[in-house]
Write a structure and sequence with these properties.
17 helices; two-stranded antiparallel sheet; mainly alpha; single chain; two-stranded antiparallel ribbon; globular
Amino acid sequence: MPTPPARTGPQSSPSSTGGPIDGLPQLPLAIPLGSTPVATQNLNAPDDFAPPGIPRAAAGPWIPADGFQNSPEITEMDRIAAGDDDIDRLGGVLSAAPPWLVSLMVHMLGLVLVGLLLVPSLIRNELHLEVLFAETFGEQLEENVFTMAGDLEEEPLLTLSDLTSVDDPLASAETNLEPLRDQMLAASFEDPQVGLAFTGREPGMKDTLLLAYGGSRITEGAVGEALRWLEKNQKSNGSWSLRGPYQDGAVTENKVAATAMALLAFQGAGFTHDATRPMLNSAGNKKEVDYRRVVGRGWDAMLEWLDKDGCFWKKGKVSVEHHRLYSQAQATIAICELYAMTKDKRFRRPAQRAIDYAVRIQDAKGGWRYQAGIDSDTSVTGWFVMALQSARMAGLEVPSEVFERVSRFLDTVTDDGGSRYGYLPGYGSKPSMTAEALLCRQYLGWPRDDERLQRGIAYLANYPIDWSDANSYYWYYATQVMHHMEGDEWLAWNRVMVQEIPRQQVTKGGEKGSWSPRNDRWAMGGRLYMTCLCTFMLEVYYRHLPIYAELY
């Protein structure tokens, strides 16, 4: 991986970076689908997780506090309804009327009764709701209205509170999803159960989480376009390249990192070598998409590079030595995710070998850096923490002391007791390294209300996504941190991200579906690197379930 210099930057929450290359919350589940669908009617939905309903009846006519007697607008019928003694006058009026008038009144009454019987059959009893998707992100995200889009509107939706809780949210879950079969929109129960944190990628859960956390047809359409661009640029042997054949390739080649990141983009959307998935396009329509061959060929290439020791690096695959462990960590995340999602036995031993290798080469200081077993920095360490956590989610063996050593290392790179972090001990804190370290802290067990974590989140909130000072590495990590936090922190971050990331995607020409790296601090990583990080951000709604969600 490219080794970026240190800087800082802005965002609706984060920005900045440092080190060699920089990089999951309590939110109401009834949040409109991002780019937000807005009903043209004003629906009076209850405050808590209720689907749109018919507006409640009006409260009725206003009645003065002193009753009917003092109101100048009270009619004779009001008095009759109130039980007024003047009702006796009606009999006198009728007895004095001529016969023809009585006959006319009786016939008119008959016509009214016939009309009341016939008219309802001529009226279609339908409630018409027009759902509009705003091209800009509006205030609807803050309302507890569960708005549905496209072909989701006919189906019951699963909410996070329906899931069975587990003792260890990051371990491979043995939760029984069978009772939820009727609520899953399209989930396949033939597949082996996956670690709970990966269930968001299943079709039914994916739809629900998009709605719950502010994703939209626009974010999903952007993910679909990005995957098509990656498919187009896959090489004949199944690998990907950081250099090309597209425009704005990286300064140096790294086929392991390029292939691992491309596979992570497909897997983040739920695609594996043995599963197709429905994708929501930018028009709000769903279509079954088949990337099995793309992912399968990519893994054929990756397994060719994996040696008996669990290392993916081979001479000629990584041209810059200090990219070697970045690449190793990314490839390890990818293979652990694949095994967790598929339980394909072909990948269990290779995934465990890669994890064993990561454990063996952990530096005495507690982290990882450029060379196996030598030195530690926050940037490389963050990628390995995610690899180890992916292994735990997959049910692979990871010694607990590995995480204890990581915590001790992180203690050496904070400059204020735990809320801000730098690249190396003694280096000043930066938003990029702070976001990466706080994500590690979240996975290592810090509670949501930890005062240090809260201060760190407030610090990142000063650096929101800002394309005038693009910092994709920082955004990638800060997006995950904010998503895990949920609540106001996530709302503020997503309000910007849901607009800015799709807006910057190339929409025509040969690079359609990608993101240009030209304005990014890590432009040396190239177009594929930039495209994968942006895709990961737009998959965050379902890529990992938020750590602090009540289902845990």
